Every structure is written in structure tokens, then in C-alpha cells.
Amino acid sequence: MSGPYDGRPVTAATPSMTVAPAPALPPGQSPPRGRPPLRRLGGYALIVPAAIPILVGLGYPLARQFVLSFQEYGLAQQFGRPAEWVGLDNYVALLSDGYVWAVIVRSVAFCLANAAITMAVGMALAVLMARVGRPARLVLQVSMLLAWGTPVLATMTVWQWLFDSQYGVVNWILAEPLGMAGMRYHAWLVEPLSFYAVATVIVVWMSVPFVVFTVYAGLLQVPTETLEAAQLDGASSWDRFWLITIPMVKPVLLVVALLQIIWDLRVFTQIYVLQRAGAPTRDTHLLGTYIYSLAKEFSMAGAMATIMLVLTLALTGFYIRHMLREEEL
């Protein structure tokens, strides 16, 4: 049986808890950090098996090249003669040569021009691929894959025939349908300017598919709701592209442009094959082919390769700083 009820409301008794306030920290002092969790250390441990082969495979050749650049190392040293330590003599000899500076400037100009053209063409084709229907998109995708997947030497053989001075299709089109009679037997590889024009066409042709597929994947991540809302607000197609689409895919564009700069700076196969087809070697050298021409002098080649590495790091470092500054805004 229950006890008498006196008319007062019945409430559940809850024990009171007193929470002590956290001690205040002095100004400018952050709270102490605890030890990293064990699972985080386990994650780093999982990287070790992959990091060790990468460090050995890339680190040893790089260190060996750096050491060779400070030595007098040639064919005689390959047969057992001890290498002589010469310090900075190799670097001084290279950097005091005006031709080396001409090759560096030529390589940087070729790199920036090709990267800019590749990004422009790749972005245009990616936007086109995102707006056309499914059949046309499949044709573009298959075409890009064929251009990207064809071996470099096979591609170079085709392009050499296209620009051949006697039987090339390019010369025939310029001379017959377009009426430029002076281009009928034009030798594209003899003059440095036309040589680099041909090299640019080939390098851009082989680099565009990567940009197209990467930028196209970024365009697919742009929310359609945002574009539709901007269209309802009166924004034109051009405004929607520059003010909405480009800012959203900007991280992808920055990374792709950085990779293009690195790849175009160290281009080798296309230039070397075109040189072997009859181009003047000295007037068409870029950094990659010039380093290859120093193959008999290992120390000079190592020094030039180190200069190329420093130049690559300088360009990428400048670009990364600009990229981080853009993200902070």
C-alpha cells in the first residue's frame, strides 16, 4: 500500500554534481598535447614498406649524381681510375658558358608555352566533353585514350611522316587546298623556330588527354543546383563558367598545371627523335637532350642534371607558394 499523499508534487531526487572549472592557462600558452594515438603510429608504420623502396630507388641515384657533379669522372674512371674531387669546377664551367644559359632560357620558354597551350586546349575539350551528348562524349573519350595510349616512338613516326618535306600531308594541305605554294617542300625541322613549332604540336598532342580527363572529372563535381540557381538569378553561361565552375575546379587546375610544367621542362624523347630526323642539334637542344649529349662526361652531366633539378624545384616552389597564397584568400 502507498503512504498518505499530502498534495505536494512528487519529484525524483537526483544527486547534485559539482564540476570543477578547468584551470586557466597563461596568455599565449596552448594546452599540452597528449601522445599520438596508437592507430596513428600504426598508419605511419604501414607507409614504411612502400617508402623504403622509393627512397632507395630514387634517393641513391640522386645522391650518386650529386656526388659525381663534384668529381672529375669520365670514361677512364669507368675502367678503374680513381675519381678526382674538383669541387665546384663543373658548375663554374657550365654556368660561365653562354650556350648553357641559352639552353636554360630556351627550355623554360618551351616549358611554359607548352604548359599554357596544353592547359587551354585541355580545358576547352573537357568543357566540350561535359556538354555534348553521350555518343559524342564516347567518341571524344576513345580519341583521347588512343592519343594517350599510343607509344611515344610510334606517335613520333606518324608525326614525322605528317611533317615530311617531300611527302608530308601538312605541306600538301598548306600548298594545295590553302594555296601556300611556298610551303610545298618546306623542311620543318631545319629551322629552329619551325622545329619547336612541330615539337609543340607533338608534345601538346600527347599531353592534352591527361588534362582533359582530369579536368572533366573535376567538372563532374560541380553541383548542378548551384549552376541552376545562378541561372535563375540571371547569370549568363560565361558568368557561370568563370565565377562558379572555375573557382570550384581551381584546385584541380593548379595541380594539373604544376604537373605539366614539370613534365614539359624535362621533355626528352620528342626532341631527341626530331633531332635524329635531321634537325640541327646544337640549335635545338633543350635541357634533357643537352644532358644526354654530355653522357661521356659523367661529372658534367651530373652537374647539369643537378642544375636542372634546382631549376625544377625553383619553378615548382614558386608555383606552390602562389597556389597556397590563393587558397588563403
UniProtKB/TrEMBL annotation:
Residues 1-34 are annotated as: Disordered. Keywords: Cell membrane, Membrane, Transmembrane, Transmembrane helix, Transport. It comes from the Bacteria. Its main location: membrane. Residues 104-319 form the ABC transmembrane type-1 domain. GO terms for cellular component: plasma membrane. Pfam families: BPD_transp_1 (PF00528). InterPro entries: MetI-like (IPR000515), MetI-like_sf (IPR035906), UgpAE/MalFG_permease (IPR050809). One of its GO terms (biological process) is transmembrane transport. The keyword Hydrolase does not apply. It is a multi-pass membrane protein. SUPFAM superfamilies: MetI-like. It is found in: Cell membrane. Residues 23-34 have a biased composition (Pro residues). The chain crosses the membrane at residues 41-63, 99-126, 138-162, 193-220, 241-263, 298-320. Belongs to the binding-protein-dependent transport system permease family. This is Sugar ABC transporter permease.
